[in-house]
C-alpha cells in the first residue's frame, strides 16, 4: 500500500488523478471515504473490465440504489443528473456516485480539470469508450461531511457542465492501429 498526501486540499478530482497517476495497476477503482458505499461492491466495478477481451469498455460506473441522503439532496441530484444527461447524452442516471472502475491508461488520456470526477461517463464516452453501469449499495454517511450545499454545487456545476459540453463537442476519437507484423 502507498499513501499519498497533497500539501493542500485539492479536491476529489485531484485526489483521484494523483492516485491513478501513482498506481502501478492496469485497472483502477474508486470509492469515496465517507462509508456510503460498501467495499464489497468493488468487484462489480473491475470484473467487467477484466472480462472484456476486446477492451472496448472504458468505464464501469456505479449507480446508487436505495440512496440514503436527505430528500433535498436527492431532488437536487435528480435535477442535476437529468440536466447533465440531457446536455451530455451519456446515458448515466447517477454521475455523482463515487464508485467507478477504469483502465489506468484510458483515465490518464482524459483531459484533467477540477471536478472532472463528476463527468467521467461523458468524458469516456466522448473518447469512444463503452460505458457499463452497475447498481451499487448506498448507506448513510459514516464520516466526513459534504463540501457543498445544493446551491454551491449548482453554481460550480453550471460552468463545469458548459465546459464539458464544449470538450465533448471538440473531442477526437481517432486511435492508431498497430500494423506491425
From TrEMBL:
Pfam families: Glycos_transf_2. GO terms for molecular function: undecaprenyl-phosphate 4-deoxy-4-formamido-L-arabinose transferase activity. CDD domains: DPM_DPG-synthase_like. GO terms for cellular component: plasma membrane. The keyword Transmembrane applies. It comes from Roseobacter litoralis (strain ATCC 49566 / DSM 6996 / JCM 21268 / NBRC 15278 / OCh 149). InterPro entries: Glyco_trans_2-like, Glycosyltransferase_2, Nucleotide-diphossugar_trans. Residues 2-107 form the Glycosyltransferase 2-like domain. Gene3D superfamilies: Spore Coat Polysaccharide Biosynthesis Protein SpsA, Chain A. Keywords: Cell membrane, Glycosyltransferase, Lipopolysaccharide biosynthesis, Membrane, Transferase, Transmembrane, Transmembrane helix. SUPFAM superfamilies: Nucleotide-diphospho-sugar transferases. Transmembrane segments: none annotated. This is Glycosyl transferase-like protein. GO terms for biological process: lipopolysaccharide biosynthetic process.
Amino acid at each position: 500500500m502507498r499513501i499519498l498526501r497533497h500539501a493542500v486540499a485539492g479536491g476529489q478530482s485531484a485526489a483521484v488523478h494523483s492516485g491513478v497517476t501513482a498506481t502501478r495497476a492496469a485497472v483502477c477503482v474508486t470509492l469515496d471515504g465517507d462509508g456510503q458505499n460498501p467495499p464489497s461492491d468493488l468487484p462489480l466495478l473491475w470484473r467487467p473490465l477484466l472480462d472484456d477481451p476486446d477492451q472496448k469498455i472504458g468505464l464501469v460506473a456505479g449507480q446508487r440504489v436505495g440512496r440514503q441522503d436527505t430528500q433535498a439532496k436527492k431532488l437536487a441530484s435528480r435535477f442535476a443528473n437529468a440536466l447533465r444527461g440531457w446536455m451530455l447524452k451519456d446515458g448515466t442516471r447517477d454521475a455523482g456516485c463515487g464508485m467507478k472502475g477504469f483502465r489506468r491508461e484510458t483515465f490518464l488520456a482524459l483531459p484533467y480539470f477540477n471536478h472532472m470526477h463528476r463527468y467521467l461517463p461523458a468524458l469516456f464516452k466522448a473518447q469512444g469508450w463503452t460505458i457499463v453501469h452497475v447498481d451499487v449499495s448506498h448507506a448513510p454517511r459514516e464520516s466526513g461531511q459534504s463540501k457543498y450545499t445544493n446551491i454551491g454545487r449548482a453554481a460550480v456545476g453550471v460552468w463545469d457542465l458548459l465546459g464539458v459540453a464544449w470538450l465533448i463537442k471538440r473531442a477526437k476519437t481517432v486511435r492508431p492501429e498497430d500494423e506491425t507484423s
